[in-house]
Design a protein that fits this description.
Aldehyde Oxidoreductase, domain 3, TIM Barrel, 2 domains, six-stranded parallel sheet, four-stranded antiparallel sheet, 20% strand
């Protein structure tokens, strides 16, 4: 396993099933109760697999009698046309869970696949690619897991596990020094990051003892100047309008982190198909 599974996995699946199934699957009820089937899930796209545990949990909650065997593990690179897993069990719960299970698998695999593209650019460098909080509502922990499956790293999980002081916070707190000082008082040992918009603000962040300075929407030339100015006294993160085309130059400049909202918000679902074969009686 690439990383520990999120603690809210079962609850996330339960919400998704409640959303889709409601008071019951009217169409699956047309199938005889003793009918069984087997199925395979095939990918039509090259992909990095992610979401097997969510897929499994869908069917576990519907009927623990369903058996699932995986041909690949999370984090594996899989080519188009490959079989991802096979399933056998009672027909009704398999039909009921098909869409919800595939929704998790296609979305989380898409996130991992997108992350792998960005991770490949930074491979072998000192730059770490981070996600952001621009996640699909309700899938924060799942997408953060998928980012790690793809080889990138997580920024804050939420507002509670790190301080990111932006323009409005600076103004309301009375300046960078005051904001960082208060953050140290209230946030304990959690990292403190300050968004800076100029060389002068970068100097203020360094003097205040911030852990990281975020260079938001800096040009490549300005990023290079900031790296020289910081001289290792503070870690630097580049954020804003980061694309695969722009990433190699940012990595070459030598920043510590590049945060990319596209890892989670601009994904295109992997094209998956579940193919069924019916049996006469349930297993």
């Amino acid at each position: 396993m690439v990383a520990p599974l999120p603690a809210d996995l079962a609850a996330t699946v339960a919400r998704a099933l409640a959303e889709d199934v409601g008071s019951g699957d009217l169409t699956a009820a047309l199938v005889p109760a003793d009918r069984a089937l087997s199925a395979t899930v095939v990918t039509r796209d090259d992909m990095v697999l992610c979401g097997a545990a969510w897929f499994d949990e869908v069917f576990r909650q519907l009927d623990p009698a369903i058996k699932i065997e995986w041909a690949h593990a999370d984090g594996a690179r899989v080519t188009a046309g490959a079989t991802l897993c096979s399933l056998t069990g009672p027909a009704r719960p398999l039909l009921t869970g098909e869409r919800t299970a595939l929704n998790f698998l296609q979305t989380l695999s898409a996130t991992a696949t997108q992350s792998a593209r960005y991770a490949a650019v930074a491979a072998g460098s000192g730059t770490r690619i981070l996600d952001t909080r621009k996640t699909i509502p309700g899938l924060r922990s799942a997408q953060k897991y998928a980012v790690r499956c793809g080889g990138c790293d997580n920024h804050r999980l939420g507002l509670w596990d790190g301080v990111l002081i932006k323009e409005n916070h600076i103004a309301a707190a009375g300046g960078i020094a005051a904001a960082v000082s208060r953050a140290r008082t209230h946030a304990g040992d959690r990292p403190v990051e300050v968004e800076v918009e100029s060389p002068a603000q970068l100097d203020e962040a360094i003097a205040a003892g911030a852990d990281i300075a975020m260079l938001d929407n800096f040009t490549l030339e300005e990023v290079g100047q900031a790296v020289a100015q910081a001289a290792g006294r503070i870690q630097l993160e580049v954020s804003g309008n980061v694309t695969l085309e722009r990433l190699p130059a940012l990595v070459a400049v030598g920043v510590d982190f590049v945060s990319v909202g596209a890892l989670t918000k601009d994904v295109v679902a992997i094209d998956l198909s579940m193919r069924f074969r019916y049996k006469q009686t349930a297993v």
